[in-house]
TrEMBL record:
TM segment ranges: none
Name this polypeptide is given: Tryptophan--tRNA ligase
Catalytic reaction equation(s): tRNA(Trp) + L-tryptophan + ATP = L-tryptophyl-tRNA(Trp) + AMP + diphosphate + H(+)
Function description: Catalyzes the attachment of tryptophan to tRNA(Trp).
Tagged with keyword Ribosomal protein: no
UniProt subunit comment: Homodimer.
HAMAP family linked to this entry: Trp_tRNA_synth_B
Compartments where located: Cytoplasm
Record SUPFAM superfamilies: Nucleotidylyl transferase
Matches recorded under InterPro entries: aa-tRNA-synth_I_CS, aa-tRNA-synth_Ic, Rossmann-like_a/b/a_fold, Trp-tRNA-ligase, Trp-tRNA-ligase_bac-type, Trp-tRNA_synthetase
Organism: Magnetospirillum sulfuroxidans
Length: 332
């Protein structure tokens, strides 16, 4: 059986990177796989979250997924803390994965920065919880943006070590699914930096909650250079901001970059940007309106997540029982 698991941290605005790198791909995949999509609230608290904001953001990310076209009846949609087996398996993985593996995680180094001693233990052990998220469902495929690749390699290593330590073939080795024209969307202000929720400048990203005027303003202000669109991909080799806008256009229109480049070759970026504004508003506008409508009815979102959690628990609990038997824990 082919099963997908993927998750988003409810830590602030959903942005175009989350949408193009992950959620838009999930919408395509939901017809080919059994899918489980999760608001990973337990990952979120590895850095401080205001409790009220966390609740609101969890609902908003769920609203964003549904508004983008994820069908909550067909797929399992829930928040992580409602399914205890994630944290229970994560403890077992804390005892399987090695310190050396976690020490190599670039995301921990980036997030902890110079204050490593002051980072939470949870932030360090974060990748083990992520491995547990995936493997508690024996998921075979994990669609993510490029920034999650290293964590997925760790999940595979952990599954493999568990299997070999206990002499079993219990866990599958999950495959990353990283595809599309925008697997790494960059900041609109600096083509060397990833678009992220934590960037101080709101002009660096397009939020899924931005209205049409804001989207237009941010794209018009996006950094570019003085040269026109080239006619070959090599022509964008040292023009990261231009390459980023091209990738965004291609992903929003479900085309590849060379086709879009051929359409705009020789034209100025000011012209390209105004077409990008039209495209972005036409794709993101309806999602934004639907998110607003859903957010006006939080009890409906909560009911969707509770139902999703019931379904998730029904899959996860028997897998956790098997893990406990393999490890040798006595069970009630
Ligand atoms: P998170 O919440 O940072 O991001 C959610 C998804 O969006 C993708 N993404 C991007 N893709 C392209 N360009 C960008 N600038 C960009 N920024 C974010 C991410 O790659 C991700 O797919 N650790 C994960 C959450 C997680 C998870 C999991 C994912 C927890 N458990 C299990 C998959 C499976 C994270 O922090 O994603």
């Amino acid at each position: 059986m082919q099963r997908i698991f993927s998750g988003v941290q409810p830590t602030g605005n959903l942005h175009l990177g989350n949408y193009l790198g992950a959620i838009r791909n999930w919408v395509h995949l939901q017809n080919q796989y059994e899918c489980i999509f999760c608001m990973v609230d337990q990952h979120a608290i590895t850095v401080w979250q205001d409790p009220k904001e966390l609740t609101r953001n969890t609902r908003e990310v769920a609203a964003g997924m549904i508004a983008a076209g994820i069908d909550p009846d067909k797929n399992v949609l829930f928040n992580q803390s409602m399914v205890p087996a994630h944290a229970q398996l994560a403890w077992v993985f804390n005892c399987v994965a090695r310190m050396g593996w976690l020490n190599r995680m670039t995301q921990f180094k980036e997030k902890a920065g110079k204050h490593k001693e002051n980072a939470s233990v949870g932030l360090f052990a974060y990748p083990n919880l992520m491995s547990a998220d995936i493997l508690i469902y024996k998921a075979t495929h994990v669609p993510v943006g490029e920034d999650q690749k290293q964590h997925l390699e760790l999940a595979r290593d952990t599954a493999q070590k568990f299997n070999s330590d206990y002499g079993t073939a219990f866990f599958p080795l999950p495959e990353p699914l990283i595809f599309g024209a925008a697997t790494r969307v960059m900041s609109l202000r600096d083509g060397a930096k990833k678009m992220s929720k934590s960037d101080e400048s709101d002009y660096s990203r397009i939020n899924m909650t931005d209205d049409a005027d804001t989207i237009a303003l941010k794209i018009r202000k996006a950094k570019t250079d003085l040269f026109p669109m080239p006619d070959t991909v090599e022509g964008l080799a040292d023009r990261p901001e231009a390459a980023n806008l091209l990738g965004i256009y291609a992903a929003l229109s479900d085309r590849d970059k060379t086709a879009v480049m051929a359409q705009f070759a020789g034209r100025q970026f000011s012209e390209f940007k105004s077409e990008l504004v039209d495209l972005a508003v036409s794709v993101l506008g309806p999602i934004n309106a639907e998110m607003k409508r859903l957010m006006a009815e939080p009890s409906h979102i909560d009911a969707v997540l509770r139902k999703g959690a019931e379904r998730a628990n029904a899959i996860a609990e028997p897998i956790l029982k098997d893990v406990y038997d393999i490890v040798g824990f006595l069970r009630p």
